[in-house]
User: Fold this.
Amino acid sequence: MLRRRVRGRLQSPASPAGRSGQDPAGGGLGDVATSASHSVALSRDPCGPQPCDGGEVSRVALGEEETGRCRSLLDSLLRPAWPGESERWADALVARFGSLPAALAARTSERAQITGPAPARFLGRVQDSLVHGLRVRVAERPVVSTSKQLLDYLKADMANLTNERFRVLFLTAQNALIADDLIWEGTVGEAPAYPREVVKRALEVGAVGLILVHNHPSGSHQPSDGDVDATRRILMAASSMGICVHDHIVISRAGWASFRSMGLLDPQREGAAV
Assistant:
């Protein structure tokens, strides 16, 4: 049975993340709040703008036709319950967030500044429904890190986030999905990735394979030196217990990057730059 749960939220300025570019969005210390010496940092800072295997190279601004389509779809979602306000809200949401996917992925509190609380919560449920449908498709077959089904799900859930998330997909020997855990969520800055936490959870659910995933709210999917170092430490901790790290996927608005495709899953790699 597919399980998806949050393992912890470290959004306090005093957390091991160390830096924060925005005020925390809320939340407290979870069960992953272990010693900072046991964590490694997934940095949001890209190494550069070079394209990488598999992902899109850059974010293309929406044309007038696509922007109009976003407004029309938002209007059609809101009109049945709020016919007098839906068109104005749709225009304002696209102007604020840039697109339909970004408006749906925004925090409820951010949407509520435009629509009020009830419409904002309704659009959040629409987003949850879309992501759940994509997640079910992923769980129906063996998971391949660069499959269209998995990337569609990850992009829908993470590409437009303004906060960082680090999650792990736990797999059987046949690459069936056992669990999809959000290990950490926080504000823009550094996401601490805990090798011990990841390995402990893998042993709990009986996983023999992992796919690591995190997002770059900055808009670039290019892995940083910190990303490479964090992955190397998790890979070494997992391999010591006979657990295989199949890939580490970085998601952003501009596209995605696969560590396996880029040759970055060498446990002996000493913080090499991309």
